[in-house]
Write a structure and sequence with these properties.
Helix content of chain B: 10-25%
CATH topology of the largest domain in chain A: Sulfite Reductase Hemoprotein, domain 1
Strand content of chain B: 25-35%
Number of strands of chain B: 5
Radius of gyration of chain B: 13 Å
CATH architecture of the largest domain in chain A: 2-Layer Sandwich
Structural class of chain A: alpha+beta
Distance between the termini of chain B: 27 Å
Helix content of chain A: 25-40%
Strand content of chain A: 15-25%
Largest sheet of chain B: 5 strands, antiparallel
Number of helices of chain A: 19
Oligomer: heterodimer
Low-confidence stretches of chain A: none
Chain lengths: 556, 101
Amino acid sequence: MYNYTNFDKEFVAERAVQFRDQVQRRIDGSLTEDEFRPLRLMNGLYMLLHAYMLRVAIPYGTLSGTQMRTLADVADTWDKGYAHFSTRQNVQFHWPQLQDVPNILEALAAVDMHAIQTSGSCIRSVTADHFAGVAADEFEDPRPTAEFVRQWSTDHPEFAFLPRKFKFAVTGSENDRAVTKFHDIGLRLVRNATGAPGYEVSVGGGLGRTPMIGKVLRKFLPRADLLPYMESILQVYNQIGRRDNKYKARIKITLHEHGIEDIRRRVEEIFSFQRTRFDGVDQDIFSRIQDDFEAPLYKQASTDEYAKARESNPLFRSFTDTNVHAHKNSDFAIVTVSLKAHGATPGDASSAQMRVLADIAEKWSLDELRVSHEQNIILPHVHKGDLPVVYNALQAAKLATANIGLISDVIACPGLDYCDLATARSINVAQGIATRFDELKLEHDIGHVKVKISGCINACGHHHVGHIGILGLEKSGIESYQITLGGDGTETAAIGKIIGPGFKADEIIPAVERLITAYLELRLDASETFLITFRRLGPSPFKAALYPAKEKYHAA
Amino acid sequence: MKNETHLSVITANDLLSGEVVYLTASGEWSPEHSNAILFDEAVMANARLVGVQSSDNSIVGAYLAGATQGINLAPSPVHFREIFRTKGPSNRALGKQTQSV
């Protein structure tokens, strides 16, 4: 993991001190809300529906046991005993009091954490593949690049007031788990014909009200050119990105309106100058960061206990079938801990659960945890021989739900239960789907399907890239849910298609059930996933299932 | 009976706690929707809103929310968003719904 330098520590601690002063001046009336608002947003503090919300950065989703335990302490001391892990690999506290936030930031700074650039029109916290550095299918660890971009973009004076927010994602695997094609800039680690390391740079992807798949701006950018090239893209965006209309201000619209060729020409023109400004100091820094991410020393031990437990315990076998992924070291496993127990709120963990995760990470995962954008927690380095004991510890904390990648592993934004931008609730729909398919005992038979729910058009629940996407809207004074099908956030990126009119709150779960029943009838065999079946057949049979003839609909 | 399409209350979030609050007839802020002053004229409501937005330092994000007059003449919310704001999240027993009225 990246180790904070003294410079980093001082910077973060100083920001907490500054914010304490700003809060004090807001409370005593020296600052109006209009003056204070941009200051609090720079520190991740929003006002939501029922209370403030503090969004804490977890760069590329990586946490130590100590950091996770501190988040649990924050939840108990200044919030309501739980935290919400978000679809941006960050964590949110939904009930802090204004006067306590400086104390929270101080406690976070003590463990090298902060809430800087988790809001506002700046470069936001950088995300990466949650299996970074450990996935068997990985080509190269994306975290040094993610950390490099984080350092470059933090407090970057030129990019503090962009036309709109700006999001980076990095992957080092062909299997894109970081949704890079739907970020303002997506970086994919590649090598050229001579084996030199570099990046494929995609620009202008995004979800929200205008979903777009990122376009490749450079097929191969040499590693040493990364920062000057990023500076160039951001400069072009800063200059020509629209500031007249918030809904047209993201770089995806700039790219759409100007065309990729025009943007490329502008970027390359600036790059020819920018390149000369970088004399290699950046590469020395990158190299030091790389040292922090050297593969750990993996212990050598017997994996017999793993084989024995799989043989004797069907629940353990089911858990390891769904929640364990292949590690680079074949004696180790990547464990995904589901924060989606059937009926639970996706992404929520109690402080007690967070402490259990911290303990497990320290004992059995080389003191490391990851937060996935799918709102689960990863234990990246578990020796297979330790899997049975880890499973037992998870089970005791109600953290052993075996549903990763299944229909109850729904991602959902906080929706109108918390968010002031939301137009409908999303958590209740996620809970309803998980509970219903658990009752039917069908989810393992249904297999891999990604359901993603957003409570408004801003798409924090990534509904556009759900195999089944659900968008909550208001229609005629009630909550209404629109279904999209065929979305895909991976390397085979696709935007889901709207299938037909929306459903009322009490109709949406039966609608999803009809959709899944149709899929089970239509698939060639159990190996043909929902998405592949949809791609083979197109929307028609699914539309017929969603909107049956009226008499049949009412009889159902 | 007043024309309900024009009825509104002024609501905001408390500066310190963030709790949802409503402007009362006495100019104080109450956590109870039923204590809100009900405006039946848009001009009056807007004038009062501008007043609190510009001078009241104890709240954040004041706005007008549609309301109706209940049987006991107390205002009650109309839109589901405003109904949620009088209660708290539906996924957890937190917020106003846990407080005794």
